[in-house]
Each structure stands twice: as structure tokens, then as C-alpha cells.
Amino acid sequence: MLVFNNKAALGRHLAPFIAQAKTIGFVPTMGALHDGHLSLLKASLENNAITVISIFVNPTQFNNPDDLKKYPRTLDSDVLKIQALNPAIVVYAPEVDDLYDPKEQAASFSFEGLEFQMEGKSRPGHFDGVGTIVKKLFDLVKPSHAYFGEKDFQQLQIVKKLVALHHLPVTIVACPIYREANGLAMSSRNERLSTAEREEAALIYKTLQTAQQKFGTKSAKHIRDWVTKVFQNHPLFCLDYFEITDTTSLKPCIKKSKLKTYRAFIAVFVKNVRLIDTISLN
Ligand code: AMP
Known about the structure:
By secondary structure, this protein is of the alpha/beta class.
């Protein structure tokens, strides 16, 4: 299996595929791979001549140095998982200096306001970092299709906006959320939870499911207040935010409209591990 850690070598390998206009499917990840990541790879394998996965913990999208330091890095076992899925998948797993000049910061992006909601409020600069790395990787891999999970729904909308605003020749494919048996959305950060915490974290998705049920008859404000109460004084969890937003603009829903679709978004700290999840409401 081919594992590149150098962008020039990766570029040389991909050049003939690009010259022959072969379809290239691309799955950008930060590693510590789980079945959610593998589902993106499977979707790419089905629809492209070649599939490339990047494994790179991108420093410019972390506003919290401790979160960056503690982010799980498991390259050896990641490579084994990819190989077991399909040894034809091309892996790009660079060090930071392969993609960034010394002292290089994130570029500044406008995503027409999407970047100011939820994760953007809680993690200042996060989406500049995401835009910076996704643009760099798209320029390098030149994918025809790129696969992103709905788990990071705001990121997915932002990447679609990046592609539209910069006229990038790539189709963004949205993939559904993979969950543990108890409903907890799979996440590399789940590895930092104890077994008991992982079980208790099922509350996050249960809360979203109840919010979805309530949305048929209750106002967005009523549901926000209810979720706040669920997490108030909780011994293990601290609610960072819960939002009900319009699916397209990601602006908070004030008054429901039958013409719009809505989603609920949640971010919760389990000690110092921050987990996010989302659900469609109508
Ligand atoms: P990450 O490694 O967390 O940056 O995620 C890489 C890609 O995998 C992103 O497009 C994520 O949205 C997607 N992803 C992460 N977790 C899941 C999941 N549980 N189900 C589906 N896709 C996921």
C-alpha cells in the first residue's frame, strides 16, 4: 500500500491520473480512524478510479493547544485499517512542515456568515483553519469528489461554500453519521473517554432524538430551554451549546416556517473532551 508523507511525491503519483481525467475520490481526515471514516472511504471506492485519504492533525484549526496536544494520533493502526479495507487506497500522512511554512498562520476566509454560528463562536478561528487546510489539500490532490461526514454538518456546509465561492472543480459528497451501538456519534475524541463515560455519553444523541420529537409541537425556544435543563448541574457533562437552526443559513430558528428545513446541533464537554452531534428535525 502506498503511504506518502511528502506532497511532491504524492503529486508525482497522482499526475498521470489527473492527466487522464480519471476520477479521484478524496477523504480528508485527522486520523484515529473509526467506522465513520471507513464509511467515507467505502463511498469513495464505489465511485472513483482512485481513492486518496489524508491523515493530518491540522494545527491551524485548533484554538485550544491542549486539545491539539491530546488529539489521538494512531497512524500505524490507521494504515492497517485502510489496508484491510482496500490496499489500493493511497494514504497521505504528512508532518506539519510538508503543508505549512514555518510560522504560517491560517488564511482568512469569508463563508457568508456560516462561520460565525455555533462552532465558529465556540472555537474562534476554527473555520479559517479548516478553509486553509481543505484548500491546500484540494489544490494538491485535485479530487473530482471529496467526502465529508454530516457529523460535522457546519464544516460540510462551509466546505460546500468554499467550493462555490472559489469555483473549485470538485463535487462534495455528504455522508451520514455513523454511531456506536448506544447512539453516540463515532468520533476520534471518543477514545479519550473511559468506558463508563462513553456509555453515559449516549445521553447526547438521546437528547437530540427527544428534541426531534418535540419539534413537531413545541417552539425552538421551548426545546432550547428544555435541553439547557437536561444538562444543568449534570455531574459529568457541561453543555457548550444547543442550537436549532435553519439547515442552509445555520442561523438560529426564531419562528418555525413550514417552508424551511431545520437541524439541531449540540456540543458537550465530557470533562475536557468536547463532543458534537446533530440531527435533522423535519
Ligand atoms: P475528522 O478525522 O474528525 O476530521 O473527520 C474526518 C471526516 O470524517 C469528516 O468529514 C467527518 O465529518 C467525518 N466523520 C467523523 N466522524 C464521523 C461519523 N461518526 N460518521 C460519519 N462521518 C464522520
